[in-house]
Amino acid sequence: MGSTTQANTDGDGDGDGNVHSHAPPDKPEPSPGHAESASESLTPTPTPTASGSELAVAVRQRRRPIPRKGHTKSRRGCFNCKRRKVKCQENLPECSNCVRFGLVCEYPQTLSPPSAPLQSTPTLFTPDDMRFFHHFLLNAYPPLPILADDLWRNVACLSHSYDYLMHAMLGLAASHLDLYGGNCAAQALAHRVKAIQSLNQALSRPCSSAAEGDARFAAMITLTFQASCMPEGMTEFLSMARGIHVIANTATITHDGSLFYAFAQEGYPHSVRRLIGTPPVRLDAYWGSLIDDFSQSLRALAPLCTSSLEVKFLAAIERIVKIAKTSPAEAFAEFTSQYSLLNHASNEEFAPFVDPENYSAQLLLIHFVLIEFALGHISLGNLRFRFAYRRRACIAWMERLAAGLPDQYKKYAQWPMDYARRLATMRLGPPTSSSSPSPPPGASSGSQQIAPPGGR
């Protein structure tokens, strides 16, 4: 009753009996929109359509993008994540996104771990190894290509990415030090074994870049010259030289991006001729007699040579000795023909040739080692110090070869061995204008001249 009376007092009734309340005098009349909203909250009527301006504001607010959390761009993600343009967790074998959506997760082939080069870390090496590395850079890098100091410094930069190259370099340096009394034979052998194992593993797959091709080729050269430092390394040296020939044909050194490109294009004989010159030289009586005695010792081997490779090898040495009569430097440059015979020989030909019980071939190798060292020492002039270490190894090789000969064959080795033993007594240091263990053709003979057996 009270509420009805209040309504009748404050409101006006219409003809239908409906009651409408009046707004307070101090407040404005609500807008039609607000009135509709109020009635909407009181009665379960359908939602009315909002005005155009309000609808546009609401749409703009709903479409405002939610800021995404920043992340590092995935460049090696799976194909599904790349297609969806989302970050890939790069989990193996399946990323989390593909697992969540039930997709087949596939990664690009470049992610294959076996294709990545082996990485060396400083923690793998000892202070002695650091000493070997330093010695390699200063004194023990391979003497070929001639005058290639900068090349081998650039090669050394590759060694941190290729374990076989690093171990080959350390092994050569250790063998070089051991040759001069450094007592590093065990360390040299350990590095050599690691280098060969790692290089064989690398050679089982195709070469992927110019840098890798250079590393393989450089490692093979380094291992070959390490064998040239080893008193028992002659057979291994010849085998490794064949390996250089194989790798040179399969690596990328013939491409202009290779560190060895210039050397590969010019070739060893031409580089020797360019660097030392090969002018004809008139031999004095001493050198003429020396070469004649060497030729006579070679001719005595002819009846002993039976295989095709032995006959060709003897003929090649005789040709080089003949060239030496007019130009020892040209003979030294042509000495690669000897290695070419062995490099192109089949395994069936090469294996019997280096067999310790093939005594005719062992005699050929004694003469081969002696003439190569002698011609190099005569011809290289100021460059000879880079090959000076070879004297110790060459004499050791000849001694080992001669020691394995039966008594009936020792007479064929008498002349070269007598000459080699006299050579061993001479002091070979950096060449000077006043001293040389064996003067070049045309020079006056002095107290250090090496005379052939028989008092010449």
Task: Please explain how this structure is put together.
There is one protein chain. The protein is mostly helical and 456 residues long. It has three domains: 79-111, CD2-Gal4 (Irregular); 122-266, no CATH class; 279-424, no CATH class. It contains 22 helices and two strands. The chain has a two-stranded antiparallel ribbon with strand order 1-2. A hairpin with a 5-residue loop joins β1 and β2 (19-20). The chain is elongated and about 105 Å long. The relative contact order is 0.06.
> What's the number of extended β-strand segments?
2
N- to C-terminal distance:
156 Å
Helix/strand structural class: mainly alpha
The helical percent reads: 55-70%
- Fraction of residues in β-strands: under 5%
Q: From the alpha-carbon coordinates, what is the Rg to the nearest angstrom?
A: 43 Å
Write the layout of secondary structure elements.
Elements: H1 2-10, E1 12-13, E2 19-20, H2 32-42, H3 52-62, H4 79-84, H5 96-101, H6 127-140, H7 149-158, H8 163-179, H9 185-203, H10 210-229, H11 234-250, H12 261-266, H13 268-276, H14 285-299, H15 308-324, H16 328-333, H17 336-343, H18 347-353, H19 359-379, H20 390-403, H21 407-410, H22 414-424
Antiparallel strand pairs: 1-2
Helix pairs in contact: 6-8, 8-9, 8-10, 9-10, 10-11, 14-15, 15-17, 15-19, 19-20, 20-22
Organism: Canariomyces notabilis
Keywords: Membrane, Nucleus, Transmembrane, Transmembrane helix
GO molecular function, one term: DNA-binding transcription factor activity, RNA polymerase II-specific
